[in-house]
Write a structure and sequence with these properties.
95 residues; mainly alpha; 0% strand; single chain; 73% helix
Length: 95
């Protein structure tokens, strides 16, 4: 739920013009989150690849992959709920 509030704040402050743009932003965030987790896990926490991948095994009750899915589709979902016009007045005033 906290991510939804953050996505909403960002949509109002820096509105995304299209669903495609929102999906690209979400996919980039999800990719960076995953890259950070694996890099940190390997280099700092010294975890094995099997330990790291085990954290993403949805079929063993690990729900963390759902967070990555929400990070990926959240900006698009919030944009659709708020409507693309939200934040448009801010964009218009900057031009």
């Amino acid at each position: 739920m906290a991510f939804a509030g953050y996505f909403s704040f960002l949509q109002r402050r820096w509105p995304l013009s299209t669903d495609r743009e929102a999906l690209q932003v979400g996919a980039a965030w999800a990719a960076m989150t995953t890259a950070f987790e694996f890099t940190f896990g390997r280099l700092v926490a010294k975890q094995s690849w099997s330990e790291l991948l085990g954290s993403y095994n949805f079929f063993k009750g690990r729900l963390w992959p759902l967070m990555h899915c929400w990070i990926a589709v959240g900006p698009t979902t919030v944009r659709r709920v708020l409507g693309p016009a939200v934040g448009a007045e801010l964009r218009q005033s900057k031009q």
